[in-house]
Design goal:
Elements: H1 7-26, H2 32-39, H3 43-46, H4 48-71, H5 74-92, H6 97-125, H7 131-159, H8 162-183, H9 198-209, H10 212-242, H11 247-271, H12 277-300, H13 306-332, H14 339-359, H15 370-394, E1 399-402, E2 406-409
Antiparallel strand pairs: 1-2
GO molecular function, one term: xenobiotic transmembrane transporter activity
Family: Belongs to the major facilitator superfamily. Bcr/CmlA family.
Transmembrane segments: 46-65, 77-97, 103-122, 134-158, 164-184, 205-232, 252-271, 283-300, 306-327, 339-363, 369-389
Length: 410
Amino acid sequence: MRHTQNRHLITLILGMLATVSPFAIDFYLPAFSQIANELGTTTARISLSVSSYFIGMALGQLLYGPLLDRFGRKPPLYAGLIIFIIASIGCCFSTGVEMLITLRFIQALGGSVAGVAAMAMVKDFFPPEQNHRIFAMLILTIGLSPLLAPSIGGFVATAFNWKFVFVLLALIALFAITIVFLFLPEGQEPDKTVTLQLKPMAKTYLSILSDTQFFTYTISGAFAFASLFIYVAGSPIVFIDLFHVSKQMYGAIFAFLSIGFIGASQLNILLVQKFSSASIFRFAMRLQVAAGMVFSIVAWNGWMDLYTTILMLFVFLSCVGLINPNASALALAPFTKNIGSAAAMMGCSQIGIAAVASIAVGMFDAASVLPMVLSMSATACIALALLMWGEKKMAGKIVAADASKGVVVH
C-alpha cells in the first residue's frame, strides 16, 4: 500500500508515534530528586523505574507485533495508547517507589505499541528504496525527545509538581490518538491467517530469529543501542548527584548530547547514497568500541570530569545515531510477510537487552562515573563481536534496501 501524495504527513505522524514512548522516558528525568524526596527513597531507586519502563517496552513489542498483523494497525494502536494514558494518570497517585516502578512498567506496556506500529507502517506506506530515509527521519523525531523532554519536564516539575509531568504525558497520548484517527490512512489490511495462539506465535518469532541477517543486525545493534539506555538511566545520577548540575543545566546538557544522536542519524541519509548500510553500520560499531577503550582508560585513571564525560557520551550517542537506522533497515529487509512481528521481535530484542544493561545503573556509586563508562564500553565490544560473527556466517550475502538501488544483494 502506497500513499505517496500524503507521504510528508504520514512521515510526520509516524514520527510522532515513534516519539510517544521515548518522550515518556526522558520527560521526568530532571524530577528524579523531587520524586525521591516525596516518596522517601533515593534517586538510584527511582532510576529503576526507567529500567522497568524499558522492560515493559520490550515485552510490549512482542505483544503488539502479532496484534498489528492480525487486526490491522489502528485497533491495537488505540488500545495500547489508552493503557498508556491510564497508567500515566496512575503514576500521579504513586505512594511508594514500588508502585511507581510497577505503573511505569504498565505505562510502557501500553505505549510501546506506538513505536512498533510506526516501524511496521514504514513498510506499509513507502517503497523499499525509501525505507532508509524514513527510518532516519524517525530517528530524527525520536532524537527531538531528549532534546526537548528534559527541559520541558524540568520546567513543569519546578513550576508545578512532578505529578503534572505524567498528566502531560497522558494528554500527549490523547493527542496522538486524535491525530491518528483523523489523518493517518489505514495501513496493512488485517491478516486473518496470523494466529494469536501461543505456540504458533512462538514458532513465528523463532522463525524470524533464525534468519541470520535479522539476528546479526538486531542483536549486535541491540548491544550497541544499550549504551543509550545506560546513559538515560544513569545521567541524572552522574550529572545531578555526582557533578551537582542544576535541573536547567541538566536539561541543556541532555539537549546538547542529543545533537550528536540527531546529527549522525541525519548524516546517515547522505551516507547511504554513497555507501552501503552494512559498511556504515560496521564503521560506527568500530568507532564506538575505539571510543569506549579510550574513555575506559581515562575513567580508570580518574581523569573523567564533567566535560570529558560529555565528550564521551557525545561520541557514543553519535555512533548510535548511525547504527540504529541501518540496523532497522538491514534487519527488516529480508521480510515481506509478518513485518509487524519482525519489527516487534527487533524492538523487543533491542530494548530488552538494553533494559537489562540499564538495571546496573540502579547500583551505581555516585562517587564515580566509571561504572557507566565500563558498562557502555562492554556493550559496544559485545556488539562488534556479534557483528563479526554474523558477517562471517552470512559470507557477505546481505539483503539491503539500498537508498538508490532498491533491494539488492551485496
